[in-house]
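Model: You mentioned two targets. I'll fold them one after the other.
Researcher: Yes, keep them separate.
Model: Target one:
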Amino acid sequence: MSTARRDWSWLALTPLLPLAAAIPGAGRWLLPLVAPLTVYPAFAARVRCGDYEAAWQVAMSWAALLSLGVILLTEVWPQAAAAGILHGQAYRAEMFGWVATGAAPENDWRQFLPVHLEHLLLFVILTWVSGGYLGLVMGAALVGWMSYFVGCFALASGHPVLGAAAAWVPWAVLRVFAFVLLGALFARPLLVRRPWPFTRLEYRLMALAAAGLVADVLVKTALAHTYGLWLREMARHAAPALYSGAFGTWG
């Protein structure tokens, strides 16, 4: 089997990883800690070679497949997902409150921007000191709880596919794009054993990632309120029970 085929064969197992969240007593950190195992060898090899485009592609594919696995687990086995996804229930409550009432940090850049910057700084540090692995662990945690909300919304709205696509809000997708690119860049120093192995190419890619993060903030600031209302209408027509308090934070 060729190296590329082997890499993609491992990657294809990623949607099964969220089942780790259903293991009794495993704890909510198990999934983020083991999730990078299906992608890290392929990711690290591409970063080591300086093939950032291929590293970005394989890591984005991993993130999408991991999200798919969490969404499916949430829709098919919601109790296991609720018990096993790190920060899932708290994030679901916050986001359901945003959709139902319009009141949440999502609507105010003064509230969400410090959190974004904190996540960015932590992600870069973890990526740098671990050759990318701990950055992928953090990415798995973030994708996990965002995908748990997506699955919950899809289940509650009565639109398992369309609801999931809609609830992956566009500014969050931009943030994932940018974080994955930064992960490929800042994993390189440890992997090539050089403290600053960056050239003009890397600086251009850093600027591209920064542009993605700025776009994330601008799109979120401009669209969050209207987008939340749209999600509310989708749920209202499909599941009026949401507005009678059936989901705790709605009503």
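Model: Target two:
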Amino acid sequence: MPDNELEGIARAGAEAATPWTDEPVRIVAYDPKWPVRFEEERAALAALIGDWVVGGIHHVGSTSVPGLESKPVIDILVGIRDLEEPRSCFGRLAAIGYLHAPYRREEMHWLCKPDPSRRTHHLHLVPVDSARFRDELAFRDYLRAHNDVAEEYGALKRRLASGLSKDREAYTDAKTEFIRTTVRQALGEPESD
């Protein structure tokens, strides 16, 4: 393995072990440049880690839904075979500014760019045969197809951000039930009690 990949793995591991200062949650109006920023990053990722990609590189999250206000962070879902094999690409990702964090590690590898205190991109490396991979795409597609649900989600995010701007984890947790309900609708699953 080249030295720069080993350095990147060490850098990513060391920074993941260090307590991070999270950027406050900030919701902004939809920016039509978000899809362009995704395409630029998709091309860079395909060139850099294409060997590990088996299920595509997808724009997900609120910035992928036209008209939906969002945190100004491009969420990217990469379909991988399993959670073990792509560890060897962390050095390459570190070379273009991604930091790996041990967040939801039983589901995915989560990376952010350039820094948790000023984020521009979130990268989710997720096994293609997992519920998480299916659900992220289903949620995005449902919001794109149902403007009323996307508007309801936008209103929820604005309300939560106004009270939880300094607690990203609480903000994310408070959206969970809405997201679960929407994914069930998208997949045609019955409502749970």
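Researcher: Noted. Anything on target two?
Model: The domain at 3-187 is CATH 3.30.460.10 (Beta Polymerase; domain 2).
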